[in-house]
Write a structure and sequence with these properties.
This protein has helices spanning 12-20, 60-70, 85-89, 109-141, 153-164, 167-175, 184-195, 213-229, 241-244, 268-279, 281-284, and strands at residues 4-8, 43-45, 49-53, 93-96, 103-107, 200-205, 233-238, 250-253, 260-262. With 286 residues, the protein is α/β, with parallel strands linked by helices. It has a domain at 4-104 and 198-284: 3-Layer(aba) Sandwich (Rossmann fold). The strands form two sheets. It has a six-stranded mixed beta sheet, with helices on both faces. The protein has a three-stranded antiparallel beta sheet with strand order 2-1-4, with no helix packed on it. The two termini are 45 Å apart.
Length: 286
């Protein structure tokens, strides 16, 4: 599904006209001006999966945040915008394709890290609660408790449960709804599968962070299926070869002096991986 058809950014000439009109001289940066224009990056025509490829400083995250703000995408983490961000947005134009999706969201690395930290904190609390419940189990199992009033019902229930279950089953039964046993990578992958819903548009900033090669492949398959079967559109800033290889993805190479559309096998980062493994091919066949 293509919800967002295209977006345009101001040209170098349009930016020059803006600078001529400025009376403020106390700034040494006019970000995000002069980031995309110096790459000749004037327009993005979107597909169901569009990828902004490039290394640090290439401008891919800048472009992603400009798009997100221009289309009114929801975000969880605060984005540190410059004094000129709104004036830059006024010079950007976009058009929806068939319709505007109700759910439009940008997901950043900070969002994923915060989610993993929350799970880690939860697990830390669960560890302490588990120890407390071990003690509770032993007290309940070997107590000589007799119910004297309705207020004692809950304690009687715990005594009966303790006497009918092993210690591990008792504790697991009490904590089952709260325990999260995933690794960091599994938690990061789970974040995407929980957040991404059907009939929506998502902008993803380096989603491969914190994911192993195996989990990057799982994310790749999940995103492909979401675009193909569940009417999702994705704009992704990444340099992961696993995500770059997604079927039908349109890739803008922002490492070039003038941004160009390329096949994933033509990208420098991918070629480095290819050449490395090719040079060690015999070792894999031993």
């Amino acid at each position: 599904m293509v919800y967002l058809d295209y977006i345009t950014f101001p040209t170098a000439d349009e930016e020059f006209d803006f600078f001529l009109a400025q009376k403020r001289t106390c700034y040494d940066s006019f970000y995000p001006f002069q980031v995309l224009s110096k790459k000749g990056f004037r327009r993005i025509d979107f597909e169901p999966i569009t990828i902004l490829y490039g290394g640090n400083g290439s401008g891919k995250t800048t472009a992603l945040n400009v798009i997100a703000q221009k289309i009114g995408a929801q975000r969880e983490s605060v984005y540190n915008r410059s004094n000129f961000f709104e004036e830059y947005l006024e010079r950007c134009f976009f058009e929806w394709g068939s319709e505007m999706p109700d759910n439009r969201m940008i997901i950043t690395s900070d969002d994923v890290f915060d989610y993993m930290l929350n799970i880690r904190t939860l697990n830390s609390g669960i560890d302490q609660k588990r120890e407390d419940m071990f003690k509770e189990y032993l007290e309940a199992k070997y107590s000589h408790f007799q119910m004297k009033s309705i207020e004692d019902y809950e304690k009687l229930r715990k005594v009966n449960m303790a006497r009918s279950k092993t210690q591990s089953k008792y504790v697991r039964n009490q904590l089952i709804d709260n325990v999260r046993e995933q690794s960091n990578g599994e938690s990061a992958l789970m974040y995407f599968t929980e957040k991404i819903k059907e009939n929506a548009m998502y902008l993803l900033d380096e989603p491969e962070n914190s994911l192993s090669a195996e989990n990057q492949l799982k994310l790749q398959k999940f995103l492909e299926d979401s675009a193909r079967f569940f009417n999702c559109q994705f704009v992704i800033a990444t340099h992961s070869p696993f995500l770059l290889s997604m079927k039908g993805a349109k890739i803008y190479d922002m490492d070039e002096e003038v941004v160009d559309v390329k096949k994933w096998t033509e990208l420098e980062n991918v070629r480095i991986y290819y050449d490395f493994f090719k040079s060690h091919e015999a070792e894999f066949e031993e």
